[in-house]
């Protein structure tokens, strides 16, 4: 079982709105609803540096393939897949946001359950 999510109020509200608009699968909705129910909300300045959030460079390992992936997690309107800028509301963003470096997370996609180990998160300059 993973630890409690730590989210800024803005990210909390963004995910809550995403859920309200039914933009996720049923299994994702269950995971996110439970995560939000138990989440700790903090101010941006109080967010620990090892917690995945928006405007971070995220490095994860896909456990099934052992491939390492590095992307920039950005606001939905800034996402550019070809530049490795993923929306915080993408599958990878939702799977990891609010989690700490070192955690392993499982995330159901439309076709499979992905397992990621969070290796690093750094602020985008």
From TrEMBL:
GO molecular function: translation elongation factor activity
The keyword Protein biosynthesis belongs to this UniProt entry's keyword annotation: yes
InterPro entries from the UniProt entry: GreA/GreB_C_sf (IPR036953), Tscrpt_elong_fac_GreA/B_C (IPR001437), Tscrpt_elong_fac_GreA/B_fam (IPR023459)
A Pfam family that the UniProt record links to this protein: GreA_GreB
Domain Transcription elongation factor GreA/GreB C-terminal: 48-120
Keyword Metal-binding: no
Keywords: Elongation factor, Protein biosynthesis
Domain of life: Bacteria
Listed PANTHER family: REGULATOR OF NUCLEOSIDE DIPHOSPHATE KINASE, TRANSCRIPTION ELONGATION FACTOR GREA
The protein's name in its UniProt record: GreA/GreB family elongation factor
């Amino acid at each position: 079982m993973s630890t409690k999510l730590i989210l800024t109020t803005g990210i909390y509200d963004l995910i809550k709105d995403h859920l309200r608009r039914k933009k996720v699968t049923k299994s994702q909705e269950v995971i996110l609803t439970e995560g939000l129910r138990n989440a700790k909300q903090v101010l941006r300045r109080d967010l620990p540096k090892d917690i995945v959030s928006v405007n971070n460079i995220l490095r994860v390992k896909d456990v099934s393939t052992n491939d390492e992936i590095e992307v920039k997690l950005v606001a939905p309107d800034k996402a550019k897949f070809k530049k490795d800028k993923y929306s915080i509301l993408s599958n990878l963003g939702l799977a990891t946001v609010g989690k700490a470096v070192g955690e392993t997370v499982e995330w159901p996609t439309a076709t499979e359950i992905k397992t990621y180990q969070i290796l690093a998160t750094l602020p985008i300059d």
